[in-house]
Input
Amino acid sequence: MPVRTVEEAERKVSADRIIKSIVLVGSDKKPILAILPAKNKISYKKIKTLLKVKDVRLAQPDEVLEHSGYPVGGVPPFNKISRILLDPTVQRNARSIAGGGDPDKLVEFETRDMLEFLDPIVADFSV
Output
C-alpha cells in the first residue's frame, strides 16, 4: 500500500527516522538537494545565507526530474545532484528512511553510509 504522507508512514515506522530530499534551485540556476527530517520545513533565508546566493526556490516538477533523475515525491538522497545540504538533526538516527526513487517506495539505510557517500554540507537550514 503506497504511503503518501508522513502521517501515513508514521503508522509503520517512527516518523523521526523519515527524511525528505527536496530539490531547490538557486539564483545561480544550479540545483541544490536539501535533506532534512520529514516533519521539518526549509528556511530559504538560512539556505541563501549558507550558499551565498541571492535567491532560492523550490524546483518545478520538470526540474526535479531533470536535475535528480527522479519524480517529485520519490527523490532519494542518492541522485545526480552534487550540491547537497544535510540538516544536522538527520544524524540523530543510526538508520534513516527516505524516498526510494518512486512516490510509492521508501528505502532504509545506515545514516552514516549516506554521510560518507554524499559528503554533504552539514548545516542548520530548517525550522
In short: The chain has a mean pLDDT of 91. The domain at 6-122 is CATH 3.90.960.10 (YbaK protein). The longest helix spans residues 44-51.
